[in-house]
Automatic annotation (TrEMBL):
Gene3D superfamilies: 1.20.1280.290. It comes from Paraglomus occultum. This is Mannose-P-dolichol utilization defect 1 protein homolog. Pfam families: PQ-loop. Keywords: Membrane, Repeat, Transmembrane, Transmembrane helix, Transport. SMART domains: CTNS. The keyword Transmembrane helix applies.
Length: 244
C-alpha cells in the first residue's frame, strides 16, 4: 500500500525504511520487532507530549494557593540538575528525541517550580543566585569545549544517583508531615506512568545500560511517592517545622 508523500516521509523517518516496508507496504503485522518499535515510538511521543504538561498542574496549584508548602526545595534542585545532564547526554549521543524529549520540558518546568518556591519563601538573593546558576549550567553543558563527550558520559552516570536522591527529601518530607502538602497528584501519577513507559522505550530503542538502570531505579522511588499520595490522600496535616 502506497501512502501520499506527505504521510510516507515522516512515517519513514519515525520507524525507518525496513519497518515502513514491512508494516505499511507489506502489511506484515506479524513483524514483532517492528510492531515493538512502533509501540515504543507512540509511547515515546506520548511521554514527550505528556512531559510538556506533566508539571503544569503542580505549577498551577502553587500559584493558585499562593504557597509551595510541603514541597522539598532540595528535591527540585537535585532533580533539575539530573534532568539537565540527561538532556545534554542524550543530545550528544544523538538519541531519538522521542526517547528523552520529556526531559527537556521537565527541566524547564522544574526551573519554574524552583523559582516559585524561592519566591514564596521570599528569598530574593537565593532567587537571583538560582537564576545565575541555571544560566551558567545551561551554557557549560551545551559547550563541548568545556564539557567533552567523556565528561558528559560521567556526568550522566552521576545523574542517576542524583536523580534518585532527589526524590528522597520529598519522600521524607511527606512522611514527617503526614501529608503531601501542595504536591500535585496528577504530577505524581503521571511520573509513575511515564517512568514505566520509558523503561519500555529505552529497552526497545536505546542500547544504553546507564540510561535503563536510571529509569528502573527511578520507577521504584516513583512508586513510593505514588503510594504516599494514596495513603495521605485525605490528610491535611502539615508539620509546623516544614511550613514556610
Amino acid at each position: 500500500m502506497q501512502l501520499p508523500g506527505f504521510v510516507q516521509e515522516p512515517a519513514v523517518q519515525l520507524i525507518g525504511d525496513k519497518c515502513y516496508t514491512s508494516l505499511v507496504e507489506q502489511f506484515n503485522v506479524g513483524d514483532v520487532d517492528c510492531m515493538k518499535l512502533v509501540l515504543s515510538k507512540v509511547l515515546g511521543l506520548g511521554i514527550v507530549v505528556g512531559g510538556s504538561l506533566l508539571k503544569f498542574p503542580q505549577i498551577v496549584k502553587i500559584i493558585s494557593n499562593g504557597s509551595a508548602q510541603g514541597l522539598s526545595f532540595e528535591s527540585y534542585v537535585l532533580e533539575t540538575a539530573a534532568y539537565a545532564i540527561s538532556v545534554a547526554y542524550n543530545y550528544r549521543q544523538q538519541n531519538p528525541f522521542s526517547t528523552f524529549g520529556e526531559s527537556v520540558f521537565l527541566t524547564i518546568q522544574d526551573i519554574i517550580i524552583l523559582l516559585l518556591i524561592l519566591n514564596y519563601r521570599k528569598s530574593p538573593r537565593l532567587l537571583f543566585a538560582a537564576g545565575l546558576i541555571i544560566v551558567t549550567l545551561s551554557y557549560v553543558l551545551s559547550n563541548a569545549s568545556i564539557v567533552n563527550d567523556t565528561m558528559i558520559a560521567w556526568l550522566q552516570v552521576a545523574a542517576i544517583p542524583t536523580g534518585l536522591v532527589s526524590k528522597i527529601p520529598q519522600i521524607y518530607t511527606n512522611y514527617v508531615n503526614g501529608s503531601t502538602g501542595q504536591l500535585s497528584a496528577l504530577a505524581v501519577f503521571g511520573y509513575m506512568a511515564g517512568s514505566l513507559a520509558r523503561i519500555f522505550t529505552t529497552i526497545t530503542e536505546v542500547d544504553d545500560l546507564i540510561i535503563l538502570t536510571g529509569f528502573l531505579l527511578s520507577t521504584a522511588l516513583n512508586a513510593i511517592l505514588t503510594l504516599q499520595m494514596i495513603i495521605y490522600w485525605h490528610s491535611d496535616k502539615l508539620s509546623p517545622k516544614k511550613e514556610e
